[in-house]
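Student:
Attend to each token:
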Amino acid sequence: MDTVPAAVAGALRRTIDGGGIVCVLTGAGMSAESGIPTFRGTRDSLWSRFDPMRLATADAWREDPALVWGWYRWRMQGVRDAQPNAGHRALAELARHVPLSLVTQNVDDLHERAGSVVDGHVHGSLFALRCFACGRAHTALDDYMEGAQRVEPMRCTACGDRIRPGVVWFGEALPDDAWASAVDAAERCALMLVVGTSGLVYPAAGLPALARRHGATVVEINPEPTALSAEVDHVWRATAAEALQQLSVLPRSIDRHSSAGR
């Protein structure tokens, strides 16, 4: 992909000229180019025989917390070893030139490490540790042992129960503050970029439709068709890194063009 599609460039220009806000909704494809597998893409030999969708539940935690914590410690270490990709950095650059609200379904911290402010981690965060019983937040993390499948979770200093990852497990409600921020961003934006998400996981997958109902132009950025493709205004078949690098330089060229016309 060598150029930004004219329809996408025009939507961004109208947003800038009108003083509007860009909302970016990112999914697993955003971090895939950093080497982080998608949730359903765990092929590591250590975990290949386990179903991630069965590990990511409160019942699994109650049944075998050491196994679940071992899986999450493996995932945390993979995130720690990864680096933000060009797409993460491009979003941080875009936010320097355009009012931007960033909402992510990802539980990693690559957006923040690239310099972005995330308005809502709607599915929680791996590193936002808290007690399973009393909910008290914890910041300390135990040492990771390569190849350890079962790891006994840390204990809460307040009540003694086990510390869990701060992700949203199946059957749990989304974090109130993060979801409220996501809804607010969708309702106020003039342009929404939907980047690297399958559009299968609700309620987050409903945010693009919410944005359109409030008058926003919605652009999907994804190399493959998704469940959202038929419901958006424009489709850009590119990876997150490819598309966002190109998009991030447009505001400067728009500013130069506007200045020359004065």
